[in-house]
């Protein structure tokens, strides 16, 4: 018969554990601990604590900072996950000196951070500078749209949200009526009805609170954009993975070791964020002893989402050697002439036959005497609107008469869509800075421009892959711009600490 060793779960075992020995030199947790202990100025947190005479002793901010940084580095974003790690994981227990902060302390610490995160970010940047991790000659800017901690279900114009509230109210009345009927039903049915009723009640209350004296949210063109009843600072915007209700998280990266110089979350499009990102980076660089003119003559690369007259003007003012292509630059690049072929081959997608391109401006002639354009059919296009602006240029709009286009034999070739009623023509108007766009086109199409712009991909894209995939920051867990901004900066901080860990040697 088999004989086994005794199983005694009531025995007492004493394991000598040195918390200090758990933080082994050469590990990320050791780097975090050393950095927080010796290089970060934690006095910025002092103003939060007013318990010197009364009140219980608080958990030291360095404990909270250490466990949060390590948790973020390991892809743990939830404060409950961090709390559990501080109870079960010996590394977290060592970092927290066995104090095991609870989830509400952790969440409150993160969400109440404001200028502190900026200060510790600058401290870390100074360490990067001292360790020689910054090159300071080429920078890349990019962003990623991350969902906020809200649902798209709560988005809409003010009228749409009012309509939604009315519908919910109707539903609530129906559920209350059903509930009255169900009173004689078994307890389990009544409980289910009550739960539904409560849910609808909360939803109606939420919308009522939100809609009270609420003004419509306006976009940059003055038109109403969708509000969100849960986090009204977040915006709905298209991204590479569908429409996202959230924020645009930006990072400006140095080329040498991909250290992040500035990180911020915005509720706006990329092309509106270049200036605030440069200002933010300048603030951080001045804090570590650089000159405010630091960017002069340096290279900056950013993708075509940042291409706008405004962005190019900012770069010119900063004397930056910027490489920001327009959206058509690949079409002009002979190296991408057969890109459609590879798309079909690799992904097996069947592309529709290319449409004949509509007539371009060059196909229309201007009649200066009558101030109209003449189309290839000899019909007049009169001025419809003057001095319209988009992010690239100022232009006048001309249009043809509906009746002329309706019977035109060239319709299919002239109009971009079959159901378009008439042809519109946009004519660029000379502005004070019309050449910045053309200068950038020429610059990006040059051999040197292509070579420098190609560096962007290797500098900035891996940073987002590291944060969003490896560190699993694919969704903000907080609400409001201020809080998600803190969360994004903490991730940028963790990224920079990982660079210090890999390429530097803290002393
Ligand atoms: S579609 Fe209209 S604008 Fe175009 S060629 Fe015909 S008439 Fe002219």
Task: Describe what this molecule looks like in 3D.
The chain folds into four domains: 19-48 and 56-112, no CATH class; 128-149 and 239-331 and 437-492, Nucleotidyltransferase, domain 5 (2-Layer Sandwich); 158-215; 361-432, no CATH class. The chain has 18 helices and 15 strands. It has helices at 19-22, 28-38, 61-73, 79-88, 90-95, 103-111, 115-130, 158-182, 187-211, 274-287, 309-317, 329-332, 339-347, 402-406, 411-414, 435-445, 447-470, 481-503, and strands at residues 138-147, 155-156, 217-218, 224-225, 227-228, 235-239, 242-254, 260-266, 299-302, 321-323, 365-367, 372-374, 380-389, 394-400, 424-428. Strands 1, 6, 7, 8, 9 and 10 form a six-stranded mixed sheet that branches. Strands 11-12-13-14-15 form a five-stranded antiparallel sheet. It is globular. Bound molecules: iron/sulfur cluster. The site of iron/sulfur cluster (SF4) has 13 residues, from helix 14 and helix 15.
What's this, in brief?
With 507 residues, this protein is of the alpha+beta class.
Topology, number of strands: 15
Separation of the first and last Cα atoms: 61 Å
Mean pLDDT: 90
Shape designation:
globular
In terms of structural class, how would the helical and strand content be classed? alpha+beta
**Low-confidence runs of at least 5 consecutive residues:** none
């Amino acid at each position: 018969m088999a004989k086994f060793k005794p199983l005694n779960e009531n025995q007492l075992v004493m394991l000598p554990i040195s918390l200090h020995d758990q933080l082994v030199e050469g590990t990320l947790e050791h780097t975090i601990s050393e950095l927080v202990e010796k290089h970060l100025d934690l006095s910025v947190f002092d103003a939060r604590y007013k318990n010197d005479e009364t009140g219980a002793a608080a958990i030291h901010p360095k404990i909270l900072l250490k466990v949060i940084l390590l948790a973020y580095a390991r892809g743990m974003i939830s404060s409950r996950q961090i709390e559990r790690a501080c109870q079960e994981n010996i590394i977290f227990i060592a970092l927290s000196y066995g104090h095991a902060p609870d989830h509400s302390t952790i969440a409150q610490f993160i969400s109440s951070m404001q200028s502190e995160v900026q200060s510790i970010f600058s401290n870390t940047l100074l360490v990067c500078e001292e360790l020689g991790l910054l090159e300071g000659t080429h920078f890349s800017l990019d962003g990623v749209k991350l969902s906020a901690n809200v649902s798209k279900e709560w988005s809409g114009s003010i009228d749409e949200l009012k309509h939604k509230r009315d519908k919910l109210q109707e539903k609530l009345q129906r559920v209350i009526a059903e509930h009255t009927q169900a009173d004689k039903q078994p307890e389990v049915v009544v409980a289910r009805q009550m739960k539904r009723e409560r849910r609808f009640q909360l939803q109606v209350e939420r919308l009522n609170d939100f809609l009270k004296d609420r003004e419509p949210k306006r976009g940059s063109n003055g038109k109403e954009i969708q509000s969100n009843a849960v986090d009204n600072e977040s915006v709905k915007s298209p991204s590479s993975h569908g429409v996202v209700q959230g924020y645009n998280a930006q990072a400006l990266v140095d080329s040498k070791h991909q250290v992040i110089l500035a990180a911020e979350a915005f509720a706006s499009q990329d092309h509106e964020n270049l200036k605030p990102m440069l200002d933010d980076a300048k603030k951080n660089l001045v804090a570590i002893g650089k000159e405010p003119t630091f960017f002069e003559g340096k290279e900056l690369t950013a993708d075509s989402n940042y291409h706008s007259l405004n962005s190019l003007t900012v770069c010119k003012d900063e004397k930056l050697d910027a490489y920001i292509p327009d959206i058509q630059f690949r079409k002009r690049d002979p190296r991408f002439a057969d890109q459609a072929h590879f798309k079909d081959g690799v992904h097996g997608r069947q592309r529709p036959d290319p449409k004949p391109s509509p007539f371009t401006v060059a196909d229309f002639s201007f009649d200066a005497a009558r101030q109209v354009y003449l189309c290839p059919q000899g019909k007049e296009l009169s001025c419809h609107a003057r001095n319209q602006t988009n992010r690239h240029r100022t232009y006048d709009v001309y249009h043809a008469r509906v009746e002329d286009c309706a019977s035109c034999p060239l319709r299919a070739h002239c109009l971009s869509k079959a159901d378009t009623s008439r042809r519109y023509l946009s004519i660029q108007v000379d502005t004070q800075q019309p050449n910045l766009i053309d200068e950038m086109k020429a610059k990006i199409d040059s051999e040197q421009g292509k070579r420098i712009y190609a560096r962007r991909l290797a500098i900035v894209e891996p940073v987002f892959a590291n944060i969003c995939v490896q560190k699993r920051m694919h969704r903000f867990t907080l609400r409001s711009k201020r809080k998600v901004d803190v969360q994004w900066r903490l991730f940028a901080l963790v990224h920079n600490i990982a660079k210090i860990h890999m390429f530097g040697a803290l002393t």
